[in-house]
Amino acid sequence: MLHSSANTTAVPVGSAHHGAVVTLQNNTYAVSDKAATGATPWRVKLVNSKGQEVGAASSIAVTNIHGNATDGSIALFGTPQGILRVQTGGQQELLPYPAAFGANWLSSLSYGAAAKTFLGMSATAGLHLVNPNTKTFTSVGGITQYTRALYDAAGQDIIVLQPDGKLLVFDGVSGSKKADKSVSNLIPDVAAAAPYLATTQKYVYITNAPQGKVHMLDKGTLEEKHTFNITGKPSRIVMIGADLNGEGEH
To answer: So which domain of life are we looking at (predicted)?
Structure first.
């Protein structure tokens, strides 16, 4: 029912810290656990709704945890030592990064439901499809610098906006490029404007705070289809509902 209060349940999981947690399909939680004092070690443990540790005991310690994603049956966490894979039974494994990463690591992770793939990213290592089954990392377009990168609403394609104004669409399964086009004619200084994106099956929406606009682009061609004039400076954007073909359909 709309406008009703949400019921919340507190699950005790350990000492307070800026950590990460995912809900798995067997109603357990894979949650980061930090040493009570000092910066390390970190680990991930599996707990039930009462906060009790269940499944295989955590045996892998890392120096940091940042970023997480899940497909419901496994959870991935970003760490400097590799991608930590946690299964619903608590079994854990570190997926080592390619040697070319050097000291860089993937500190943000997303899951594309339609593509059934994981996207790992960081400002230093770039964008990579992470396959937890084959333990492989596949670069997405060789991209190392980006302003925004995300799956579309269905989790099928990956949309990337680079600081130089180039907008690209990649297949979320293979990582192959499907479209690219500069949006510098719409937003002259993308690096300074730092636009946000929302993407559906048909369209890419991109905020333009300096000009008070939101641009609507055809996802297949990246041609501008419509521009919405917004009062104020639009920043973050989220897509709710179905695709629209123009402002008149709102």
So the answer is: Bacteria
